[in-house]
Amino acid sequence: MYFHKYLIAGNFEFVKQCKAGQWATLGKTRYRLHLTEFQDDIYRLRVESPRWPQSFSQAGLTPPPVLKKNGTRARSRITLDRGCGIRLVDDRGRVILQSPSGQTFGLCGDASLFMFRREACHQFYGMGEKSTGLEHSGRRTKFWNTDVWADFHVAQFRDGTPDPMYVSIPYLIVKRDNTYVGLLLDNPHATFMDTSASVAIAGQMALKGVDHSCFLLGAENGQPDLYLIYGPSLAELTCKLQKLVGCTPLPPAWALGYHQCRWGYTSAGDLDELDQKFRKHGIPCDGLWLDIDYMDGYRVFTINKKHFPDPKGAMSRLKAHGRKVVPILDPGVKLEKGYAVYDDGRKADAFCRNPQGREFVGLVWPGKTVFPDFSTTEGRAWWARHVERFAANGIHGAWLDMNDPATGHADHMQMLFDHGRAPHETFHNQYALGMAMASRAGFEKAHPGQRPFLLSRSGSTGIGRYAAIWTGDNYSNYHHLKGSIACSLNLALSGVPFNGPDIGGFGGDTTPELITAWMKAGFLFPFCRNHSISGSREQEPWAFGPKVMRTLRRYIRLRYVLRPYLYNLFVAQEERGEAIMRPLFYDFADTKSLPLGKIQDQFMVGPAIMQAPLLEEGQTSREVILPGTGAWYSLMDGKWLKGNRRISVTPTLVQTPIFLREGTIIPVVANQGESNAFDGCRVVFHILLKRDSRSAAEMTYVFDDGATLAYQQGKQSRLLVRARVRRGNLEITTKLTGNGFGPCDSTFVTYDKFAQVSVNGHILVRPGQLSARLGNE
Ligand code: MIG
C-alpha cells in the first residue's frame, strides 16, 4: 500500500445515462443503482453489480425505516437525474449538496468514485482518526488501518502528521454555514477522499490546471455504498450517524476514571506498588494496566507465573482496593507446538491462511506468530472462548493492541481471511472490529450482567459499539499535545465518542511542564490514561516532585468530581447518540464575527464545560473565544464573563482556562474527588445561573449502579432538575421521573448572589451559603 499514490478522477469512466433501479453497463461492468430514502433524512446510494457479489462490510449499519410515501415528512429532498446528478435540497428549497451530472459516479476496474461539487463556503470534518487537524479542506487521504510507528519514518510520527493512522472510518462531514451533511462509505476496503487538494510535483511545484470544483470519495474495491445524512445541525447529524453506526454502550463507571499505564509494569508487585502509591498520594485511580511483559514470553492468554504466582488473588486484592487491572491482548499467537492456545486454534482452524493455504505467519513480539481469523463466526467464537477463560482470573477489561493488524515486516497482504477465500483487503480495516466483537463476547460470558470495558488501537465503522479507542503511539512533545484535541474531535464526530490519547506522551521523555499541560488539557477527554514507552522516564503523577504532583492530582481529582457529569454524557450518548467531547460549532452557531469552524485549541466537554488549554511550550497566556450569546463562568477567577467575544487569559501555574456555560446544570460528587468510589445516589448540582439569567436551566440526572447491565432492565433512576431565576430568587425544582434505582440525595451549589434560593418551594438557605466553587482546593 502506497500512502502517496491515489486513484484519480481522470482514470474513471462516469455514468452519463442511467435510471435508478435499472440495469446498465459501464465499460465491462454491469450495474444497477439503488437510491433508498430512510426516515430522519438519511439516504443511501448503493450500486449492485456482479463485480462485487457481496459487501464484506461488518459495520452492521442500522438505518431507520424506509420513508413511506406520504409517511413521516422529511426535512430534505433528494433527486437523482439521468447522469446520476444528485441534488439534496432542504425544506426551504436551498441546495445543500449537489454533484455534477454525468460526473457523479465513476468506475475504473474494481474501483469506484463519487464526486460532489465543492463550494467556496464548504468546510470539511470527520474522517475518523486523522492527525492532520480538525478542518479537512484541501486534503487527500486514505483509509487503511496502519501501525503508524511501523510504517512511517520517525520524523513523521514524532513531529509530523502521519496519515493514514490506525482507525479507518470513511465518513466526511460537509459544513455549509450552519447546515451539515454527512457522507459515509459503507465499504471496508481501502477507501480514499480528496477534498480538492492541490497537486504538487515532488512536493514542490503546484500543478496548474487542476480542477478544484469537486470533492470526491472513492474505494479501491468493494461494493459502492454511500449514505447521505442531512443534519441539519451538527448535533443532529452526529446523533443520526451514531444511531446508524451504533451508539457506544454505557461503560462501567470505573472506565471513566483515571487510568495508569506504562510499558514495563510486569508483576503483581508492580501493581500493588502502584495501588499503594496512589493511596499514599491521595490520587484517585481506577485502572492499572498491564503491557506485554505480564505474559509468559509474549504468549497471548498466558500470565507469567514468576511475576504472578496467584493471578486471581492479585486481581481480587486489587479489586478490594478499588482497582481494576486491564491487561493487553495482542492478536498474534505464537507459532509453537505445545502452546495450548496455538494447538487449540490450529485444531479449530481459527487462523488466517496465506495464498498457499497454510497458516499465515507474521513476525511480532513472540517471534513467528499466526493470526486469528476474526472475519468468521467460528474464528470469533474461538477467540471469545479464550477471552472468557482468561477473564475468569477476575479481569473486567482488556486493551486490544496490534490489531491493525501489525505483522512486523511480514507483508500482511498475504494474510487471507475466511479460510483463505477472502483477500486481505476485504477484512484488513475490519480486523480490529472483529477482535473487539469477539473480545466483548468473551467478557460478557465470563462476567454475565457486568459491563465490560475494551480499549482498541485500530478500528473501523461500528467499532464504538464494542470498544473505546486510544489514538495510538504519540510522542512526548507539544506538537502531539496540540494535535490530540483535533484528533479526538475527529473521532468524536465520526461515531467514536469514547476516545483519548496517551496523556503525557508515549514515546520519548516527557517533562514536568509537558505532563502538567497535557493533564490540564486532557483530564476531561472521554478516555483518560497516562501511558509511556518502556525505557522512557517515569511518568506516574508522583515522578516529577511534589509540586507537579499536586497540580496533576488537582485535575485527576477534578475528573472524579465531574464523573457524574461525564457519566451522564455517556448516558446521552447511548440513548441519543450525542457526542461527548465536541468542537465549539457543535453547540454554537458559527457567525461571521466569531467563526468557529477552525477552532481546534478549544473544545466542549458536553454542553456545559468549555476548555481552552495552553498548548505551547512556555506559554503563559492565550486568547479564548467565548461563543454564543450567553455568559460563561470562569473557573479560574470565579467570575461571570459576557459571551460572544474574544478575551485574553493568563492562568497561574496551577490553573487552566475552563468555562462553565450559563443555563446549564452540572452534577458532581459530594466530595473533593479524593476517592474513586462511585456512588450515583449522592449528587451535588451546580446551577449555572446568574441573577439576570433569562432562560431556565434543566437537566435530567441519570444514575444507577455504574457497573452492571441491570439498568437495561429498568434499574436506573432519573431526576429532572429545573432551575430558573424569578425576581432575583433562584427557584429549583426536582422530580424523580424514573425510580428504578431509588431516590438520590441531592444538594445544590449556586453561582450568584440570589435574594432567596428555594428547592421544591422550600426556602433552603440564606443567600451566599451555597456558593462553593467547583475545582476549588
Ligand atoms: O510494538 O505493547 O501502541 O501502547 O505500549 C509496540 C507495547 C506494541 C504498541 C502500543 C503501545 C504499547 C506497545 N505496543
Task: Write a structural description.
With 777 residues, the chain is of the alpha+beta class. It contains 14 helices and 48 strands. Strands 30-29-27-26-22-21-20-32-31 form a nine-stranded parallel β-sheet. A hairpin with a 3-residue loop joins strand 34 and strand 35. Helix 7 packs across helix 9. The radius of gyration is 26 Å and the shape is globular. The termini are far apart. Mean pLDDT is 95; it is low at 768-777. The structure holds ligand MIG. Ligand MIG binds at residues 263, 291-292, 328, 401-402, 457, 472-473, 506, 531.
Secondary structure elements and pairings:
Blueprint: E1 13-14, E2 23-26, E3 29-38, E4 42-48, E5 76-80, E6 86-90, E7 95-98, E8 105-108, E9 111-117, E10 122-126, E11 140-143, H1 148-151, H2 154-159, E12 167-168, E13 171-176, E14 179-185, E15 191-194, E16 200-201, E17 205-206, E18 214-219, E19 225-230, H3 234-245, E20 259-260, H4 268-280, E21 287-290, H5 311-320, E22 324-329, E23 333-334, H6 340-347, E24 362-364, E25 367-370, H7 377-391, E26 397-400, H8 424-427, H9 431-446, E27 453-456, E28 459-460, E29 468-470, H10 478-493, E30 499-500, E31 502-503, H11 512-522, E32 529-530, H12 546-561, H13 563-576, E33 581-582, H14 584-587, E34 603-605, E35 609-611, E36 622-626, E37 632-634, E38 639-641, E39 645-649, E40 658-661, E41 664-668, E42 682-688, E43 697-703, E44 717-726, E45 729-739, E46 745-750, E47 756-759, E48 762-765
Parallel strand pairs: 12-28, 20-21, 20-32, 21-22, 22-26, 26-27, 27-29, 29-30, 31-32, 42-46, 45-47
Antiparallel strand pairs: 1-8, 2-3, 3-4, 4-19, 5-6, 6-7, 8-9, 9-18, 10-13, 11-15, 13-14, 14-19, 15-18, 16-17, 23-25, 24-25, 33-34, 34-35, 35-40, 36-39, 37-38, 37-40, 41-42, 43-44, 44-45, 47-48
Helix pairs in contact: 7-9, 11-12
The protein binds ligand MIG.
Residues 263, 291-292, 328, 401-402, 457, 472-473, 506, 531 line the site of ligand MIG.
